[in-house]
Amino acid sequence: MPQRGFTLVELLIAIAILALLSVAASTLLGSSLENQQQIEQRAERLRELGTALVIMRRDLEQMAPRIGRDLHGDSHESMLLSYRDSEVERLQFTRLGRRQLPGSFVGSSLERVRYTLSEEKLQRHSAPVADPVAQTPWRTQTLLEGVRELRLRYYDGREWFDQWPPLSRASADAPVATLPRALSVELELEGWESVSLQVLVGGGS
Fold this sequence. Notes:
By secondary structure, the protein is an alpha+beta fold. It has one helix at 8-61; strands at residues 81-82, 89-95, 111-118, 121-127, 139-145, 147-155, 160-161, 182-189, 195-200. Strand 3 (111-118) and strand 4 form a beta hairpin. It starts with 7 loop residues before the first helix and ends in a 5-residue tail after the last strand.
């Protein structure tokens, strides 16, 4: 009995089905690769955020109860300086526990730390002395990008304030020799909801 082959119509139908399957497989593969890339980017973003929060927590927990001096040698108005209305600088204080690298000059364990927010970059600036002068080198580290807002609040044991020292305690005659007991950090990030962190201040009363 003679074998019957495929007709032209059947071949065209088979080719069309294979083409559709190829398009579907290609689309699925492209979508999977795109999802994988987004997952990796989000994981990297989470890692950067976690590192930034760890560094901020470490700094705040090791805050020193010490009134610093400005470039002219005059005492600051408080142990902790906050700049609520500043477009760049947001926080400045003295920190304990500066690491001494092997073979380096043994100096003070204190360092001056500043936090700034500019062009959506949260940056940490540190000087290797408690009272920097004009010639003191500052080390700048970008902790996080895409930061739209940085909000800070200060707790004295009874209530929260939007700046430190509170206006009710600020004095032109004598510096405020106290630190807040806790500090709240809220970051508004690009493409994310806000992230908050509350830390007990190391030198707080």
